[in-house]
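batch_manifest entry 22 of 60
target: Histidine kinase domain-containing protein
source organism: Hungatella hathewayi WAL-18680
requested by: lab member K.T.
priority: normal
notes from requester: please return tokens only, no post-processing; we will run our own comparison against the previous entry in this batch. if the run fails, retry once and flag.
--- input ---
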Amino acid sequence: MNRIMIMTQSQIDKLIAENVEKAVHEQKENDEYDLLKKQTDLAILANQINPHFLYNTLECICSMALINGDRSVADITLALSQYFRYSISGREGIVTLKEELDNLKNYISIQQFRFPKKFKIHFGPMESLQEIGIPKLSLQPLVENAIIHGLKDTTLGGEIHIEAKKMGNILEICVSDNGTGMNLEKLDRLRESIRDEGRFGTEGGSHSGIGLRNVNKRIKLYYGLPFGITVDSCEGIGTEVWLSLPVQTGMGV
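--- output ---
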């Protein structure tokens, strides 16, 4: 005999409220993604006034440096040209881990040219992960944070390790440094700044959390709440920043 489920008015009201809340949450996520895309488009347009002028000038400087036998200037100029070309190109969304790492190496070359003895970089094995998709410009802010904040009191002997591993269907990337680290109070403030979903951009908050917060926000908008950035730190030992995202191959969002 078929049973007919009879719902009370309070159950009906609760079901309606849950559906409305779910719809509002989904609409909010869509609105946030649209806003992020518009902000990205505006940033790209602002930086595309005449990018070829910048590229051509840097490549000209590179050629002149080679002619004059100054290999170090040629190398850093080429790295700067490639870094800008990647950063302000019209392409957005998902790129491969290989593309992100190539851009990251250019950024590191620029920073090591500025601070020759401040730090060394160590890359873990990532050959099997090269074609996994990752949001563009997700890694550079993590390394920038390590250089500027993690190693801010270091003039030489700094170490930054960049490692990635695949755990089932999740890609985890870790950027760690041997800097001064943070006490629990500072770490909690940084974590709160990164989690602050009410802000996107550079307004307010801890300056050291701006880049990390923006990356965290983008990861969550692309993939959902389980993914993003986590930070661990120990005063006097160093800091680890972890980025987690689902394993995907292919590009485009």
